[in-house]
């Protein structure tokens, strides 16, 4: 350690020493920025995946909004005679009520 501190604190430095220190420090900086950017991308993708999953869960279990895939799955389960869970039934009923209102509204415009 004392060799390094003597080298860095010495008043006389050769041009070769300066070049070596510059190259080593630039390599270290280049590696650190590369690693930090990769780490940042990983963290960002992880956060976006968590956000999308939480948004899906919130829409499904709190707002009772269903996606098209869920709608087809629920319809298939109902046609097979299976029972829906309480949150699925509530979301499916909410969709059916909205669907009936929209079809009534369209029929009144056709007349």
How is this fold's topology laid out?
Layout (H helix, E strand, L loop, with lengths): L1 H8 L5 H47 L6 H12 L6 H25 L1
Order of helices and strands: HHHH
Strand content: under 5%
Low-confidence stretches: none
The number of distinct helices, counting runs of at least 4 residues, comes to 4
Describe the structure concisely for a colleague.
The chain is mostly helical.
Task: Describe the model.
It is built from 4 helices and no strands. The mean pLDDT is 86. It has 111 residues and is mainly alpha-helical.
Give the key terms.
single chain, 111 residues, mainly alpha, 4 helices, rod-shaped
């Amino acid at each position: 350690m004392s060799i390094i501190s003597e080298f860095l604190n010495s008043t006389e430095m050769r041009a070769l020493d300066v070049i070596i220190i510059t190259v080593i420090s630039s390599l270290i900086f280049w590696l650190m920025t590369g690693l930090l950017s990769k780490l940042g991308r990983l963290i960002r993708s992880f956060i976006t995946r968590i956000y999308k999953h939480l948004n899906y869960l919130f829409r499904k279990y709190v707002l009772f909004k269903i996606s098209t895939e869920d709608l087809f799955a629920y319809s298939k389960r109902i046609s097979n005679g299976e029972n829906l869970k309480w949150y699925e039934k509530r979301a499916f009923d909410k969709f059916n009520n909205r669907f009936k209102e929209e079809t009534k509204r369209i029929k009144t415009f056709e007349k």
